[in-house]
UniProtKB/TrEMBL annotation:
Residues 397-417 are annotated as: Disordered. Binds 1 zinc ion per subunit. Residues 77-255 form the Peptidase M48 domain. This is M48 family metalloprotease. Residues 403-417 have a biased composition (Basic and acidic residues). Residues 1-30 form the signal peptide.
Length: 417
């Protein structure tokens, strides 16, 4: 077996998976060695698929034993309620076990068996709209079986051979289970898988009652705590990037929100724009920065313009024709009959909640700006203008590295996948 392991670790597994007899001779050519490793990988993947689809209770128990479970009934109820709303879209095809763990870091993960765990740190700091996108994202990892691929990537070929053909077939579930649980601490999710989960997660999000602005705002909050979570230069060689640059993820999610609005609503820096007119730069409030609140306000405004105009086909063309000509829900569009109201601290448009004014927000000015912007000629800022505003915001208010004493804790947390 040592001879086999030496051969296997020096070869690249570049062939398709081939099923070979388990009782192969221990001595063989290099080509046979590659085929032997391929057969081992095929058997491991087959077993992982079984664990993913048929052993959910066992995987849930093992995962909870690893992470612990937050003793909080409200967390449980909140996660169940949000998950149920996502399932109602009809876009979630498998069952998930969702629970909160007691870690205070900002993280969440999905693993083999359709198990999703959200850290207490996320439960305590994200609102329901932001948490809904977190679950949308993690469920898309599950829908596309990313965890299986990640575990396969993390298992060396020689380890796969030892597992598959080590003479302990009855122990394979136990051995693989241990590897899967260890995978939680050392995720091997690729950058493309993260991009897929963001993209398809947003597709689910926009079919729910939740504020689509919760997608970029959730990532914005993680960025404000941990930065881009992205290595540059030589560090990238030592520690390859599995997650896309956080600011790029925020930018792409912001664009998806804008497209959903019919390209009428944008966020540049910490300012919300409607038809290229500045509407509001919300005051910071608690854990909510101006920019984080701006995404949430923009998401609510996007629902208003989406209801009227529908979603734009691309990032450039603005939707100007209403989905129903003449009137939309009793609104005479030809007369610009916008119902923009302030009731106490709440501002609404067409009965849709837009924002609750916090100390520092000028409600009267926001209502005035909305009246001007919604009645303006349809327009949007260019990508270059938005990027310039984002760059200016980042230079003034962007992530600042923590003190050395906090560096180890920050590096340990890789952001929610």
């Amino acid at each position: 077996m040592k001879r086999w392991k030496k051969w296997i670790t020096t070869l690249v597994l570049g062939t398709s998976l081939v099923t070979l007899p388990v009782g192969m001779a221990a001595a063989a050519s290099a080509v046979e060695t590659v085929l032997y490793g391929a057969a081992a990988a095929a058997l491991i993947k087959q077993q992982l698929v079984k664990m993913d689809t048929q052993m959910q209770p066992q995987m849930l128990a093992q995962t909870q034993a690893k992470t612990g479970v937050a003793d909080n009934y409200e967390y449980e109820q909140r996660l169940d309620r949000i998950a149920d709303n996502l399932v109602r879209t009809g876009m979630i095809k498998r069952n998930y076990d969702v629970y909160a763990n007691p870690s205070k870091d900002l993280n969440a993960f999905e693993t083999v068996g359709g198990v999703i765990s959200v850290n207490q740190g996320m439960m305590d700091t994200l609102n329901d709209d932001e948490l809904a996108f977190t679950l949308c994202h993690e469920m898309q990892h599950g829908e596309r079986h990313h965890a299986i691929n990640g575990v396969m990537k993390s298992i060396g070929v020689s380890v796969a051979v030892d597992l598959a053909f080590g003479g302990h077939a009855e122990m394979l579930d136990v051995l693989l289970g241990g590897i899967v649980i260890n995978y939680i601490d050392n995720e091997m999710v690729t950058m493309n898988q993260e991009k897929e989960a963001d993209a398809y997660g947003f597709e689910v999000m926009k079919n729910t009652p939740y504020n689509v602005g919760g997608a970029p705002s959730s990532m914005q909050f993680v960025y404000e705590k941990y930065g881009d979570l992205y290595q540059e230069g030589f560090k990238r060689v030592i520690s390859p990037n599995n997650h896309p640059q956080m600011t790029k993820r925020i930018e792409k999610l912001g664009r998806r929100m804008t497209r959903w609005s019919g390209n009428h609503v944008q966020v540049g820096g910490d300012m919300v724009y409607v038809n290229a007119q500045p509407v509001v730069s919300p005051a910071p409030y608690g854990d909510y920065s101006r920019r984080r609140r701006a995404f949430l306000v923009a998401g609510n405004l996007s629902r208003v313009t989406h209801t009227i105009y529908g979603e734009a086909q691309d990032d450039k063309k603005i939707r100007t024709t209403p989905v129903a000509s003449g009137k939309v829900k009793g609104m005479d569009l030809t007369g610009n009959d916008w119902q923009i109201l302030q009731n106490g601290n709440e501002i609404s448009v067409q009965g849709q909640h837009i924002m609750d004014c916090a100390p520092g927000d000028d409600g009267a000015a926001i209502v005035h700006n909305l009246n001007q912007a919604l009645r303006a000629k349809p327009a949007m800022l260019s990508d270059k203008e938005i990027q310039k505003l984002d760059k200016k915001w980042k230079s003034q208010y962007g992530y600042k590295a923590p003190a050395k004493k906090d560096k180890a804790r920050t590096e340990k947390t890789e952001g929610h996948s």
